[in-house]
Amino acid sequence: MGHILKNANLEIQIDLPHENYNFSRFDWTGKIVSVLYKNVQLAGVEDLNCTKKNLLGRGFFNEFGIDSALGFDETETADWFHKIGVGLLKKVGKHYEFNTSYKIKPAEFQTSTSTNRVLISCIASLVNNYSYELHKTIELQETGFTISYYLKNTGKKAIRTDEYVHNFTTINGDSLGKNYTLNFPFELKPELFGEHVNPALAVRIREKGIRFNSSPNEPFFFSNLSGGKNVPASWELLHLKSKIGIREKASFQTNKINLWGSKHVISPELFFDIFVAPNKSMEWTRTYEIFDF
Questions:
Q1: Whole-number pLDDT of residue 208
Q2: I want to staple 57 with a disulfide (CB 3.0 to 4.6 A). Which of 46, 70, 199, 257 is the partner?
Q3: pLDDT for position 73
Q4: DSSP letter (8 states) at residue 201
Q5: What whole-number distance in Å separates Cα of residue 160 and Cα of residue 137?
Q6: Minimal CA–CA distance to 2: which of 84, 164, 11, 10?
Q7: Three-state secondary structure string covering the chain
Q8: Of the candidates 276, 286, 233, which has an alpha carbon nearest to the alpha carbon of residue 70?
Q9: Rounded to an integer, what distance in angstroms lies between the CA atom of residue 266 and that of residue 280?
Q10: Where are the domains of the chain?
Q11: Structural contact between residues 260 and 47, judged by C-beta atoms closer than 8 angstroms
Q12: Taking a C-beta distance cutoff of 8 angstroms, is the pair 134, 30 a contact?
């Protein structure tokens, strides 16, 4: 059942590390699977047709090192490498692939809960001269929640990676379409994007936001929305029918923002670059506000 944070406006359900999702991709420390605002659901799922909840993303799941897990390239085949927030993964293949089902040795997890917050720690053993401590606090606010990260390098090598939240977002289960507007605090220039996947041109890109010409029947994807420029790490999703919105604001600027979605869910992704020298630490936050308009 996980842990519930609740007030007059919000109810947030957080699965604890060994509950439900146990795949090798997303961080196990604080899996936010449900966000109810005035009884309206804002957390979606990666795939509506999959019954195996332990394998796929949902809600507000984050990931470290989507392109290259910590120490993968230095690890021999069949040896172990770190996936931050999960544990040790057994290497197969020449290239790290986030959707590969790697064998897992889970890290050590510790949990502390109270009425308005959950603190989950992930403590890694020393492997290939890498180790770390990750402490994540999810705190309930009056009309939102904050995720606070503390990453300490307890190993002998520098940690270079990144982190993002996939934000599997929907509002009241309504399919994507003309009821939705996704806004960013910078000008969108499609010619500077990386990948463009836009079946049937369902997605319409405007100067500072995303609209929909129709409900997308196939997944869409756009990478590098800021064109590699440092911009405020923020987005805002509005649902015109219910007059409910949600926004994320992070404590950092970012030069990488991706957008993925399908008919039933939209996922803006704000990436955070991480460099932590041995015996040093780094902190950052992501704040989510839910509102009527």
A1: 83
A2: 46
A3: 95
A4: G
A5: 22
A6: 11
A7: CCEEEECCCEEEEEECCCCCCCCCCCCCCCEEEEEEECCEECECECCCCCCCCCCCCECECEEECCCCCCCCCCCCCCCEEEECCCEEEECCCCCCCCCCCCCEEECEEEEEECCCEEEEEEECCCECCECEEEEEEEEEECCEEEEEEEEEECCCCCEEEEEEECCCECCCCCCCCCCEEEECCCCCCHHHCCCEECHHHCEEECCCEEEECCCCCCCEEECCCCCCCCEEEEEEEEECCCCEEEEEEEEEEECCEEEEEECCEEEEEECEEEEECCCCEEEEEEEEEEEEC
A8: 276
A9: 35
A10: 3-175+241-292
A11: no
A12: no
Return the pLDDT at 52.
81
Pairwise CA distance, residues 209 & 75, whole Å: 42
Two structure tokens written together for 93: 């293949």
Helix-, strand-, coil-residue percentages of the chain, each rounded to 5:
0, 50, 50
Is the CATH number 2.70.98.10 carried by domain 3-175+241-292? Answer: yes
Q: Of 37, 33, 32, 29, nearest to 6 (Cα)?
A: 37
> How far is Cα 182 from Cα 267, in angstroms, rounded to an integer?
10
Separation CA 242–CA 36 (nearest Å):
14
Q: What are phi and psi of 46, to 5 degrees?
A: -65, -40
Question: Do you know the residue count of the chain?
Answer: 293
Segments of 23-86 assigned E as strands: 31-37, 40-41, 62-64, 80-83
Parts of the chain with a pLDDT under 50? none
* Beta strands at 87-90 and 80-83: parallel, antiparallel or unpaired: antiparallel
- Rounded to whole angstroms, how far apart are CA atoms 59 and 52? 15
